[in-house]
């Protein structure tokens, strides 16, 4: 009865997906090993419409108290994990750092196989702007699909992990990377890419699922008009750009979000920020710069653009629209609407008619300083004068990390609410008059002259998309937290940057259960049922754009950050693994025997900021250089210039980007800084 009720609910409220078929087909009597799951999580966002609402309700408001650990797997990795695990045929598939795919028995947690694409860490550790993360695999018809950091798309046999085919989806001489999960539309698998900070041109490509043969490619921004346009959409888009924008690629990369409506046969793709960020450098003289920061509706058979909606015309603040999109059917003003919902970085929550692309409504989900609303007639934001920092410093909220980033949302049709993590970042921008395009580094064209986080820094927000208002929120003590899951058990699950997994009442936000994972969580939880028992899984691995640069919060800050996969079940009695405490470290500068000039130190400081600081400054995921041992200092040039630690540790080679002398200047700066740190500690 209960199952039927939820099947009906799913049909009514959510764009239909594989979960419906799986529920209807449940109840077969076979028990192969591993056991067949009776309610799976077969797609990245659970269904094509990506609502991340599970019909399972064994774990509910009343029973969640009894949730305990079923099993845990230690990846041993140190970098960010952003993947949604998926479950098909009793197997759980998840990706770790460097696009490694892992397969487990979903009940026992026994590792069945893993596939390491062997990314060249010497190259791709540097190209990955925002950590060497991967958001997971997708599945269709016995095949698993994964986008690899170095630009490959691979198809694996889901039973064995054997490589069936792989294809290179991009020009590997350029600074592209893949971190997003591939999506499925009929017989095609679709993948985008990232790299806009380094200056690339965004696109998505569809491949035939069976063979890996390219079906079509849709560019999201126009190239050099002298070379001709690939599509009518590019000819249209080019009218909205000025200058020689193609020199820095233009950006608009499709690095994460997609959704698919099989009934309308439309694939939705979110596009990213411009290259460079500052539109006065990117497109001197203005223009909307289509299709940056947009939602694109594409016919998945042909790759033709059907409609677009641009959230931030002429984006100049890194306001990507690559954030999660949910397809749902809502009653708005008494009319049933097929909608698409998104809360992109720019601070507005959008409800869009997904047939036509027409804006239904948009309201800010957090306080913002760059616009004072969205015009309901034109669908355009009303940009505030001076927000473009053309006339000097501008305090911008949300900051470039966004009011909400890639962390997936969830929509519960029973409460009618969308749940998502909100971040209170603000950043002061100033025009950089000296900007020059340089593919070796980030291309922003702006200077940061202040910024920080608000109070509370983050929150889990329940949003009514019809009324466009916040219904409840739970404050978080750190700004960077995990994606969200909601269930028919009346629950919302979210992990945090303080290393907790929480279950909240979906109606009120009340905290009903929590569990400490030692490692901070940024990935979204998911759930499945096997043998009549409901499980909840989440991958813990601190990192991503913010996590790479800042330590985790709360209790998690006391512990070494190691990648782990946790699976919970009612009555689970598993013990938490031993979480290793972080050891206090001593600056090594005074014991390093090195002589250098003042000039070398100041040149080294500039180079350190340009090439090293992004990864090494917080010392949590990637070691702080101030504590580098004497032995390691003797290998300095071999490590930094030649890349001898690339394979083992992911430290890139800087050969070709810096001279040996520049590498030594960085060493001088690091030793000098470490000696300074030791002196300050001694004074205390
Ligand atoms: Ca960006």
Q: Kindly name the structural category.
A: alpha+beta
Low-confidence stretches: 1-32
Beta-strand proportion: 25-35%
Task: Give the count of helical stretches.
Answer: 11
Percent range for helical residues? Answer: 10-25%
How much is the average pLDDT?
A: 93
* Ends distance: 68 Å
* Shape estimate: globular
| Biggest β-sheet description | 5 strands, antiparallel
Strands of the largest sheet, in order across it?
1-37-38-39-3
Number of DSSP E strands: 39
Any overview of this molecule?
The strands form ten sheets. Strands 1-37-38-39-3 form a five-stranded antiparallel β-sheet. The chain has a five-stranded mixed β-sheet with strand order 2-33-34-35-36, with no helix packed on it. Strands 28, 29, 30, 31 and 32 form a five-stranded antiparallel β-sheet that branches. Helix 7 (598-616) packs across helix 11 (660-683) and helix 9 (636-642) crosses helix 11. By secondary structure, it is of the alpha+beta class. Bound molecules: calcium ion.
Write the layout of secondary structure elements.
Blueprint: H1 2-13, H2 18-25, E1 37-39, E2 53-54, E3 67-74, E4 86-88, E5 91-95, E6 101-105, E7 111-115, H3 121-127, E8 138-140, E9 143-147, E10 152-157, E11 163-168, E12 183-185, E13 188-191, E14 203-208, E15 214-219, H4 232-238, E16 250-251, E17 258-261, E18 266-270, E19 274-275, H5 279-282, E20 294-298, E21 305-310, E22 325-332, E23 335-342, E24 348-353, E25 359-364, E26 371-374, E27 381-383, E28 394-396, E29 410-412, E30 417-431, E31 446-464, E32 469-476, E33 484-487, E34 491-495, E35 500-505, E36 511-516, E37 526-530, E38 533-540, H6 544-547, E39 564-570, H7 598-616, H8 630-634, H9 636-642, H10 646-649, H11 660-683
Parallel strand pairs: 2-33
Antiparallel strand pairs: 1-37, 3-39, 4-5, 5-6, 6-7, 8-9, 9-10, 10-11, 12-13, 13-14, 14-15, 16-19, 17-18, 18-20, 20-21, 22-23, 23-24, 24-25, 26-27, 28-30, 29-30, 30-31, 31-32, 33-34, 34-35, 35-36, 37-38, 38-39
Helix pairs in contact: 7-11, 9-11
The structure holds calcium ion.
